Amino acid sequence: MLDIAILAAAAGEHADPSVGGVHLLNATFFVSAAMLVLIGIILWKKVPAMVAASLDAKIAGIKAELDEAQALRAEAEKLRAEYEAKLAAASKEAADMNARAEAEAEAVLAKARTDAENLIARRQKMATDKIAAAERAAVAEIREKVAKAATGAAAKLIAENHGAEADQALVDRTVAELGTRLN
Q1: Are residues 17 and 106 in the same domain?
Q2: Full-model pTM
Q3: Structural domain of 25
Q4: Dihedral of alpha carbons 166, 168, 174, 180, sign
Q5: Cα 174 from Cα 170, distance rounded (Å)
Q6: 10 Å Cβ neighbour count for 18?
Q7: What angle in degrees, to the nearest 10, is found between the helix axes of 47-161 and 27-44?
């Protein structure tokens, strides 16, 4: 290339820095050459491999995060299922406890009713027995008073109607009857 420029200068022509009609000293040529040199250096230093390794590391990190998130989600679903089962069990246990409490309350009420009825029956029997005893005592007392009154009245009548002479006649008559009865 340099030879062409020298030959052209010797011929008195202006040196045209072109090869086959392509200008070598323009800006496009220098930018293209710089890019080729830069791409060559990048390939020589293995930058694409480093970029690929960096991207692979990021992909692996993201995949690990996704796997961890999936594991956390599975664990959360498992915990949710466990707590739902525990909640269902607790609800069932609460319902069972409520049913047992209601049954116990019914049993206590039934026992209280039975006990109250038995107590009322015992108290009625005691009251009836007391009334009957009071009636018997009153009847006995009345009989005693009537007997005393009758005895007193009979004694008074006998004392008024019978004297020693009437008694003598009664005794004689009784003795005479005894004699006939014994024979």
Answers
A1: no
A2: 0.38
A3: 1-45
A4: negative
A5: 6
A6: 13
A7: 60
